[in-house]
Amino acid sequence: MKNQQKFILTIVVISILGATAVLAAGTGLPIGTITVSPSAPAALSTITISVPISGEAPSEVRVKVEECNGNTGICYPDIQNVSMPLASSSIYRAEVTLKHSDATYITVTVIAKINGAWQESSQKKVNLSVTPDGNNGDDNGSPGFELVVMVIAIGVSLILISRKRMK
Amino acid sequence: MILTIKKLGFLFIILLVTFLQVLSGCTTEKNNTGDDFSFTTLDNEIKRLSDFNGKVVVLDCMAVNCQPCMYQMFDLKKISENYSSDDVVILSIDVWVSNGENASVLQELIDAFKNQANLTLDWTFGLDDPEGTIENRYATEGVPSLYIYDKNGNIYYSHVGYESYADLAIKIDEALSRN
Question: DSSP 3-state assignment of A89?
Fold first, then answer.
């Protein structure tokens, strides 16, 4: 039941995000489909973002990359806003290095200044790959349960050794 | 022999202190100041947190380009439905103005909820200033960042990231029971 509710909520949220993106973009969008390489990048890796832009050449193209953690439900505030130079005919490309070790997905938006007005693409969501230990390679610097066990074990060992020596 | 025991005991205390120091470094320091702040509503009014003194305030530092913030709206809607506005006030403030978000984008989001999900977000929405004053004070770790203020304007509870209605309701009830 909970999964079903979550699924319905996801559909609704996607349609809301889609609606806002369409409203932001307006009609006759010249910004094509955004491609992210690799398709399932790892956290902290460097990704290549490409996009075709048709029609009038834009005076400036930028890409915004936002990192989020789907497990904790956080999107990080340090959105990267990077210039996308023209790589080949009508293809704009940029490399971005991801910043957050615990991010589980990114959203990519391209903005282009065409005829003096900024136009925005729809948002592309890319899930980040998870390392075999299942935690995106992240240990966020916090000691785990094993450290607690280790300290207790050292303490107990010291007490046992001291008691044995007393005997 | 007694000296050895003392040495071992001393070593253990050092290890314990080191461990506690490491552990304390992992805790996230929360902003516990209940300082007043101002924001601009979608009607272009300047409001202050202190305007809502006498009520429990749920401050939702959010952004339009934030998927978890969208999920949070459904839980905030439940709060708006289940608590009287005489007791509990919700303030959703877009804190990503410095990232290019503005009043029209925020209004489009509210309209999209109404049109796509038949959900009227009937509480106060506002915007941070372009310098990101509220963001820098309350949402440095990310969005959504949620704060519950008691009736005296003091922060009773804070949480970074999505929070369910059930968990928020517990904290709201506790804040309501405080004098």
Answer: coil
